[in-house]
Write a sequence for this structure.
C-alpha cells in the first residue's frame, strides 16, 4: 500500500455549514455568491473555485434558516444559478432548473428519505450520471432538423448560440428520425478538446484559456473567432415528447437518434434500486473521475420513473426528484520543483510551492500555498516530491501532502530561513505565521508602491524607478518621508532634472488633500480594500475617531465581523506611529461629509434612509471604475458588482455588457452614465432642484 500524507480537511465543510454571526457578513457573502455566479455563467473566468462557492452558499443557506429576518428577497438560494446566468432573448419552453447539492453519504440518504416521504412510498429506481462542468443548453429540433440552441441563462430565458453549438461533437445537425423535440444537455470541452483549443488560441497570439469551462463558454459566445475550437456535447434529458418516459429509457432513445448522452459517455449511467446502490455508483464515479477524459465535479442522482418525478415536483429553483452529489475538491498530483519563501507587504513570511504545471479544478496551477512553516513540516513535502494539489476552501491552490513512496533518494527536508529573506533582519516566530520584526518597514519598496498607486494616494510620476532611487539613497523609509522630499534633493538624482523634480514635489504635496478613505487604502490595512476603506471612513469620519474605536464599534460597520474587527484594530495600533507622522506633515485625516438638510436624504437613499443597491457597468465620463463605485457611496447608495432583483438602479455607460441587458430583462431602472455624472455634479454643487430633475426622468 502506498504511504500517503492525509489530505487536510477543507476549510469549509459545506455539509455542516455555520451561520454568519452578523447581518453584514451575511450580505457580503450574498454579494460574493452573486459575483461568483455571474463570473461562472458569463464564462471568461472563475471568481472562486467550486468548493469555496459551495461552502459559501451553504453558509448563506444556514444563516437564512437561523435568521429568517435577514434573508434577502432575491436570495441566491432561491435563484437558478444564484442569479448569475446571462439572460438572452430565447424564452425556454420549460424552466431550466438547477439542482440542489448534497455532500456525503448522510446528506444523500436524507435527500432520499425526504423524497420517499413526498411520494408516500419507496422510489422505484434511481439513475446516477456524471455532473459535467460545462454550459447547460436546450437544443430544439423541428422535423428532425436542429433549428435553435439556447443557453440556460437565468433558467427562464437564455442566449441564442445556435451557430457555434452546431459544431459540438455529439449534437447532431439532423436526427435519424423526423421528430420535433427539445433536448437538453451540457456543452463542454474534453481534455483533448481543451489541449487543441489552447494550441489554436495561443497560436493566434491570444493568451491561453484559464480552464475548460471558460474555453467552452467563450467559444459558444464568440462566433467570429478566426479559429474553430472543438466542443463536445452530452445530452441528459428530452422534452416535448407525447408520452412521459423513464430517464434511462429517454437517454437510450436519444442515443438511437444520434446523440451522445451521459449514459453513453465513459462515465456511464447505472440504474439503481436502492440508496445503497446509488452510493456505491457515486463512489465508483469518484474513483474513475480522473480517467474519463473530461472533467466532472460530482454525480447527478435522479428518480428514474416519470411517476416518481411528477409526484415529487419541483421548487422554484430545483426539482425535488434530483440532486447533485458534489465530489470532494479536485486533487491532482504533480512534481514539486522547489520551495520559495515570499515576504508580503506587511512582513508576513510564507513558503510557496513551485510546481510543474498541472490542471486542478479546471485551472492550470504552477504554484500553491504551503500556508506556514509548521504546516510545511506537518505535510512533509520536499523539492522533487510528487505532491497532491487541490483547490478547496481557498481560491489559491494548496499542497496537501506527498506521495512518499515516489520520493527521490537523497532528498532533504526544506530548511526555513534563519533571517528575513528580504531585509536580512530577525524573524518573529512567536505565531504560526512568521513575520519580519520590521513589519512593513521590511517591505519599504512594496509598501511605497502601494501607497502612491492610482487607487491609493494617486501620486503621478512617482514610479518604481524613482522610488527605488530615493530608498537606495536613504531619503525615504516610509510614506511619511515622501512629504519631506524637496526639489533640490530630487533634482540631484540621476535622470531627474529640476523641471521633473518640481512637478513631482507638487504632485506629492497635492496628495495631502486626498480623503481619509484614500489614506486608509494607501496604508494597506489587512482585511480591508478600497470599498471597506470607504465604509470605515464614512462611518467614523476622522482618523482620530477610527483609532479610538473599539472592536465592538468596528463591527457596526457594514461587512465587518468579529475576526475582521480584531485584525483591523490590531493593524491600526501598529500603524499609529506612521499615521501620526503623516498627520504631522499635513496629510488629511478626515472624510468629506455631504451637506444635506435635516429633511433631505442623499440621492441614492430610499425613503427610509437605507442605501439603494446600485450597479455601475461601462464607463462613466470623468470617472474611473473605482471612482464610479465611490460616487455611488457618496450619493448614499451601496455599490454592487452584479445585477439581481434586489438591484435598485443600474448605471450604464459605454462598453456596458450583460449587466445592462439583465437590468432590462428584470425591469430595473437604468440611468445613463452621463446622467449619473450630472447627478453627482448637481449633488456636490448643492443643487437639489437639479438632483430632483435628473432623478425624475422616467425610465426609457
Amino acid at each position: 500500500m502506498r504511504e500517503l500524507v492525509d489530505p487536510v480537511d477543507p476549510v469549509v465543510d459545506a455539509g455542516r455549514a455555520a451561520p454568519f454571526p452578523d447581518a453584514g457578513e451575511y450580505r457580503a457573502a450574498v454579494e460574493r455568491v452573486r459575483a461568483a455566479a455571474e463570473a461562472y455563467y458569463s464564462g471568461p473566468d472563475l471568481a472562486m473555485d467550486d468548493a469555496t462557492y459551495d461552502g459559501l452558499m451553504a453558509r448563506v443557506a444556514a444563516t437564512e434558516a437561523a435568521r429568517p429576518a435577514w434573508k434577502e428577497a432575491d436570495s441566491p438560494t432561491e435563484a437558478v444559478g444564484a442569479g448569475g446566468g446571462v439572460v438572452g432573448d430565447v424564452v425556454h419552453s420549460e424552466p431550466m432548473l438547477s439542482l440542489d447539492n448534497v455532500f456525503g453519504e448522510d446528506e444523500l440518504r436524507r435527500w432520499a428519505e425526504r423524497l420517499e416521504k413526498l411520494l408516500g412510498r419507496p422510489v422505484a429506481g434511481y439513475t446516477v450520471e456524471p455532473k459535467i462542468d460545462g454550459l447547460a443548453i436546450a437544443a430544439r429540433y423541428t422535423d428532425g432538423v436542429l433549428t435553435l440552441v439556447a443557453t440556460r441563462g437565468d433558467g427562464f430565458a437564455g442566449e441564442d448560440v445556435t451557430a457555434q453549438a452546431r459544431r459540438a461533437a455529439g449534437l447532431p445537425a439532423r436526427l435519424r428520425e423526423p421528430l420535433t423535440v427539445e433536448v437538453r444537455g451540457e456543452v463542454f470541452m474534453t481534455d483533448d478538446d481543451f489541449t487543441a483549443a489552447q494550441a489554436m488560441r495561443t497560436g493566434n497570439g491570444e493568451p491561453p484559456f484559464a480552464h475548460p469551462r471558460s474555453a467552452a463558454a467563450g467559444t459558444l459566445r464568440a462566433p467570429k473567432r478566426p479559429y474553430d475550437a472543438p466542443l463536445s456535447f452530452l445530452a441528459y434529458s428530452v422534452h416535448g415528447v407525447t408520452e412521459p418516459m423513464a430517464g434511462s429509457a429517454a437517454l437510450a432513445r436519444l442515443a438511437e437518434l444520434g446523440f451522445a448522452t451521459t449514459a453513453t459517455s465513459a462515465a456511464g449511467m447505472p440504474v439503481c434500486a436502492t440508496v445503497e446502490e446509488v452510493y456505491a455508483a457515486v463512489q465508483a464515479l469518484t474513483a474513475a473521475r480522473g480517467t474519463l477524459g473530461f472533467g466532472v465535479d460530482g454525480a447527478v442522482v435522479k428518480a428514474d420513473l416519470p411517476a416518481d418525478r411528477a409526484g415529487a415536483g419541483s421548487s422554484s429553483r430545483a426539482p425535488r426528484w434530483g440532486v447533485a452529489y458534489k465530489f470532494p475538491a479536485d486533487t491532482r498530483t504533480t512534481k514539486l520543483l522547489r520551495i520559495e519563501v515570499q515576504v508580503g507587504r506587511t512582513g508576513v513570511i510564507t513558503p510557496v510551492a513551485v510546481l510543474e504545471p498541472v490542471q486542478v479544478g479546471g485551472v492550470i496551477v504552477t504554484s500553491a500555498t504551503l500556508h506556514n512553516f509548521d504546516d510545511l513540516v506537518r505535510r512533509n513535502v520536499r523539492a522533487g516530491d510528487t505532491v497532491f494539489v487541490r483547490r478547496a476552501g481557498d481560491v489559491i491552490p494548496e499542497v496537501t501532502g506527498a506521495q512518499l513512496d515516489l520520493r527521490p533518494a537523497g532528498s532533504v527536508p526544506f530548511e526555513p530561513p534563519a533571517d528575513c529573506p528580504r531585509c536580512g533582519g530577525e524573524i518573529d516566530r512567536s505565531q504560526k505565521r512568521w513575520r519580519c520584526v520590521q513589519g512593513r518597514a521590511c517591505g519599504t519598496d512594496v509598501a511605497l508602491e502601494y501607497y502612491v498607486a492610482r487607487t491609493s494616494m494617486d501620486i503621478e510620476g512617482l514610479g518604481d524607478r524613482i522610488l527605488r532611487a530615493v530608498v537606495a539613497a536613504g531619503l525615504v523609509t516610509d510614506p511619511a518621508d515622501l512629504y519631506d522630499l524637496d526639489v533640490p534633493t530630487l533634482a540631484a538624482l540621476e535622470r531627474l532634472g529640476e523641471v521633473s523634480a518640481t512637478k513631482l514635489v507638487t504632485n506629492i504635496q497635492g496628495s495631502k488633500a486626498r480623503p481619509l478613505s484614500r489614506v486608509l487604502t494607501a496604508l494597506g490595512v489587512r482585511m480591508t480594500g478600497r470599498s471597506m476603506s470607504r465604509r470605515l471612513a464614512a462611518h467614523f469620519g476622522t482618523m482620530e475617531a477610527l483609532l479610538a474605536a473599539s472592536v465592538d464599534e468596528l463591527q457596526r460597520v457594514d461587512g465587518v465581523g468579529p475576526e475582521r474587527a480584531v485584525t483591523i484594530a490590531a493593524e491600526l495600533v501598529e500603524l499609529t506611529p506612521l499615521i501620526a507622522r503623516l498627520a504631522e506633515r499635513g496629510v488629511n485625516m478626515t472624510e468629506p461629509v455631504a451637506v444635506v438638510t435635516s429633511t433631505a436624504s442623499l440621492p441614492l437613499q430610499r425613503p427610509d434612509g437605507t442605501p439603494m443597491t446600485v450597479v455601475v457597468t461601462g464607463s462613466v465620463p470623468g470617472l474611473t471604475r473605482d471612482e464610479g463605485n465611490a460616487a455611488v457611496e457618496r450619493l448614499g447608495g451601496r455599490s454592487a458588482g452584479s445585477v439581481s432583483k434586489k438591484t435598485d438602479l443600474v448605471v450604464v455607460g459605454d462598453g456596458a455588457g450583460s449587466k445592462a441587458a439583465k437590468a432590462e430583462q428584470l425591469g430595473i431602472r437604468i440611468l445613463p452614465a452621463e446622467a449619473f455624472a450630472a447627478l453627482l455634479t448637481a449633488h456636490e454643487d448643492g443643487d437639489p432642484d437639479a438632483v430632483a430633475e435628473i432623478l425624475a426622468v422616467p425610465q426609457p
